[in-house]
Amino acid sequence: AVISYFGLRTFKLADRSTGNRSTVKQPLLNGNFTFLAGFLDQSWWPDGQYTAPTDEALKFDITAVPTFGLNMIRLHQKVNPERWYYHTDKEGVVVLQDMVQKYGGASQETIHYFVRDFKAMVKGRRNHPSIVQFTTFNEGDCYSVFKTPPFDVAGIVNLSRKLDPSRLVDTDSGGGANKLHIGDVNDIHSYPYPGDPKPSATQYAMIGEFGGIGAFVTGKEWKPKSCHTYLHVASPTDEAAKYIEMAGTIASRADHVSASVYTQTTDVELECDGFLNYDRSNKFSEAETEAIRKANQAIIQKAAASA
Question: Could you read off the pLDDT of 270-283 as tens digits, one per residue?
Fold first, then answer.
């Protein structure tokens, strides 16, 4: 006997009236606008690096999302094992799936491998309903070598749509190719404070990365005094307060911004801007965690009220 499961959902762009005789482009999940507030997740573990030590560890990082009042993960330049997507499906966490980039040394000779791997990623993970969007490029990592059809930037976007027309496409999260205004998302990166991208007639607006607030916790750093952060603060209490301030800014823009991605779920080896330490212990007290949860829920509720 084979035991499986399935999920039904839709995710598509639509025009929504703002109440002042104008419309704004927004993504609809199952026919309704739901603000997508999530973590940038690099899925990196101290005891296995790219590989989680256990299935429970895979699930733990996903359940951290609703713990902090969020509903989405941008899986950053990584394709996780099937079990990870099983947990996102079962937990109801939306996934924005990045394509893995050729970070450094990209050339015409590496395009073939990129295309091959992109096809494998889409075909290998497309049965998971939690994935609603594919991100073809990230920042300036490698898009600039994609110049010649059929594998120029527009060609890769079209390839994504051909391979899986049920998912939206983010052309280039926070990079130069985002300015081509193709694909379904106007996606900016803004550190440390969240920017204010605007939707267009063909794209919804997304803050693809922001934040990077870092409190360095003694005894939790992989390499003491060597951590990177976009905004260093003295303590986790300060980190929570600054994040809540940023969440308020996003909430004030939820009438036209449709998604935001905070950097990041956990600290990694040389980055200490996670909500969780690298060993997955929570940086915050119960009261601080609850305050962050409420701030994130306020974004989602404010957006729902404007719909």
Answer: 999 999 999 999 99
